[in-house]
Amino acid sequence: MSHALAIFSILSLPAAALYDSQKKVEHARLYGNVDSLAYYFVDLVVGTPPQRVSVILDTGSGICAFPCAGCNHCGHHIDPIFDIEKSGTASWLKCAFNRCPVGRCMSEKCYYYQGYTEGSSITGYWFEDMVSLGDMIQHNPQVKARMGCHSNENNLFYTQKANGMMGVGPGGLEHEAVLDQLLQDKAHVSRKIFSVCLAEWGGQFNVGGYNDSYHTGPMQLIPMMLRGFYGVGLTKMEVGDMSITNWHQSMIDSGTTYTYMNSKNYRLLATGVEKACSGQSQPCGGKKHGSSCWKLPNGPSKFAAITVFFDSVETKWVPEAYLYRKGDSDTYCYAFQDDGPTANTVLGAVWMKHQEIVFDLDNKKVGIAPARCSITQCSERHCSVVLGVSKQ
């Protein structure tokens, strides 16, 4: 993309959705892409005066944390490092009688450590401050919440462009975390609901409700199990004449890029997709490229949709979601992955694409609606980060 085209893409973006005071729903634009960043992130405005930080939206964890000034080992990220000393409303979470409400005591402050299976980890200290969702354009109300200041980050946390992580999983609820405080702000948010709508580039995050103006079909509700993660009862996937069962325990995790499954189901699903393309002179509009990719000059629209069953509820996993594009090329690869013979199922960001996923916490339901989550090819923050274009 040329520099001039990048500027045009930014200036031609639709206006960001503002806080809806009538429905009491907060809106924030999401940024990111499966291939270029491998995650989607949202802005937070923290402190007084406000400082903006970018955080990966993660339904699979509960911590909201990012690097702070004085960090011993932190990478270079999209936004300037947060400086707690410049916020007049910030305060460290202190120990009382050598005990902390969360974490453990170190240097008279409450300390956290979070490690991840691929080897990344973050450590730091908890603080409390005023925070609002999105950037200042959205005019979302402020709440006081607990967040983490990294004093050390490594591996993926060190190299990622987004500053930090915003966990919105059930493990962060009822513990003074950001999402919990937003949902408790009954003057501005009336329902204990949040929703995520992901496109190829960017999307939208809503707290207090959802945005049905994006929906291209009816929303269906399925039971949700809160087990430290958002569990759902995935029972079957069908593609062509292939029917695949035994999905074990299944969870929805926006912080996981791909959709992971056990080895047998991966092989059956890939075989079903390829079999549905067979018998054509140019299978599904292209040709196989390696073991899990395709050369598709006109995109993946000729591939069959995968029908995903949650007991009797049928939903569609469209090819534009289960295949992801490599850069600006005509190469598309499977966005589902083999996680070993006994693996459970993780429905990652790629499964959430082109759908609005609604988390109704009071009723313990997940809503799934096909949706057009974005109409742009390049998100504003992506363009400004990758191409060096100023934010307009």
Produce a short descriptive summary.
This protein is about 15% helix and about 35% strand. With about 400 residues, the chain is mainly beta. The chain has 2 domains: about 15-210, Acid Proteases (Cathepsin D, subunit A, domain 1), CATH 2.40.70; about 215-370, Acid Proteases (Cathepsin D, subunit A, domain 1, Beta Barrel), CATH 2.40.70.10.
Features:
29 strands, disordered C terminus, four-stranded mixed β-sheet, 2 domains, Cathepsin D, subunit A, domain 1, disordered N terminus, mainly beta, six-stranded mixed beta barrel, single chain, 392 residues
Write the layout of secondary structure elements.
Blueprint: H1 3-11, E1 26-33, E2 39-46, E3 51-58, E4 64-67, E5 91-92, E6 104-106, E7 109-115, E8 121-133, E9 143-153, H2 156-159, E10 164-167, H3 178-184, E11 193-198, E12 203-207, E13 220-223, E14 225-226, E15 230-232, E16 236-239, E17 242-244, E18 250-252, E19 259-261, H4 263-277, E20 287-289, E21 293-295, E22 306-310, E23 313-317, H5 319-322, E24 323-325, E25 331-334, E26 336-338, E27 345-347, H6 349-352, E28 355-360, E29 365-370, H7 380-387
Parallel strand pairs: 3-10, 4-9, 18-27, 19-26
Antiparallel strand pairs: 1-2, 1-12, 2-3, 2-8, 4-10, 5-8, 6-7, 7-8, 8-9, 11-12, 11-28, 13-29, 14-15, 15-18, 16-17, 16-22, 20-21, 21-25, 22-23, 24-25, 28-29
Helix pairs in contact: 1-7
